[in-house]
From TrEMBL:
A GO MF term: dTDP-4-dehydrorhamnose 3,5-epimerase activity
Name of the protein this chain belongs to: dTDP-4-dehydrorhamnose 3,5-epimerase
Chain's gene name: rfbC
Subunit comment: Homodimer.
EC number of this enzyme: 5.1.3.13
Keyword Isomerase carried by entry: yes
Homology family: Belongs to the dTDP-4-dehydrorhamnose 3,5-epimerase family.
Keyword terms of this UniProt record: Isomerase
Catalytic reactions of this protein: dTDP-4-dehydro-6-deoxy-alpha-D-glucose = dTDP-4-dehydro-beta-L-rhamnose
Matching Gene3D superfamilies: Jelly Rolls
Keyword Isomerase recorded: yes
Lineage top rank: taxon: Bacteria
Function: Catalyzes the epimerization of the C3' and C5'positions of dTDP-6-deoxy-D-xylo-4-hexulose, forming dTDP-6-deoxy-L-lyxo-4-hexulose.
Enzyme class: isomerase
Length: 188
């Protein structure tokens, strides 16, 4: 399993091996022990899967506040997307900085995003599916959002008008946002 760094040390890119044969491929898309060997020793309790029909769909930037903060292991089940994590841990040397990567069914790449980060993505093809494991359950009362275009992220829009939910349209800007995370307390 290949692990590579991103612009933010705590955010990792993980590419599990695919065993190809004439039928296609087999891949252990998640293996707790292998991830722990790579320094990401976490337990997941919920698996999410969403489908976005249109290219340029932006979902995010979202977080769940403590005590239900979520770490996420994200992959693309179909199509292509640009996945982004933004550090919102107060006191972090990379506070407000972002790390992004293209995840696709083709490249099989995954992104590990610890608790204490915003998560969002933009689809690069129609009918793109994202699948991600979470380290805590959905807790609507702890759900929060920051505007997708308020963190200096270099989204690959290329003139596409983004498709947003109403919730994401009205999210606060990063500089108007008081993060519930602190650098010390938001590990993994
Ligand atoms: C997140 C979530 C949502 N829902 C329900 C709530 C709504 O009725 C419906 C759509 O929720 P929402 O519009 O928040 O879905 P996304 O815009 O894809 O939000 C997600 O997008 C970004 C990329 C994330 O990382 C988060 O997991 C999550 O915030 O699913 C559930 O039932 N369980 C859940 O865990």
């Amino acid at each position: 399993m290949k692990i590579t760094d991103t612009a933010i040390p705590a955010v990792k890119l993980i590419t599990p091996p695919r065993i190809a044969d004439d039928r296609g491929f087999f891949c252990e898309s998640w293996n707790r022990a292998r991830l722990a060997e790579a320094g990401i020793a976490v337990d997941f309790v919920q698996d999410n899967h969403s489908l976005s029909h249109r290219t340029g769909t932006v979902r995010g930037l979202h977080y769940q506040a403590p005590p239900h903060a979520q770490g996420k292991l994200v992959r693309c089940g179909h199509g292509r997307l640009f996945d982004v994590a933004v550090d919102i841990r107060k006191g972090s040397p990379t506070y407000g900085q972002w790390a992004g990567a293209e995840l696709s069914f083709e490249n099989g790449r995954q992104m590990w995003i610890p608790a204490g980060f915003l998560h969002g993505f933009m689809t690069l093809e129609p009918d793109t599916e994202i699948i991600y494991k979470c380290t805590d359950y959905y807790a609507p009362d702890c759900d929060g959002a920051v505007r997708w275009d308020s963190c200096g992220i270099d989204w690959p829009l290329e003139g596409i008008a983004p498709v947003l939910s109403e919730k994401d349209e009205r999210a606060p800007r990063l500089d108007d946002f008081d993060s519930p995370f602190s650098y010390a307390g938001a590990a993994a």
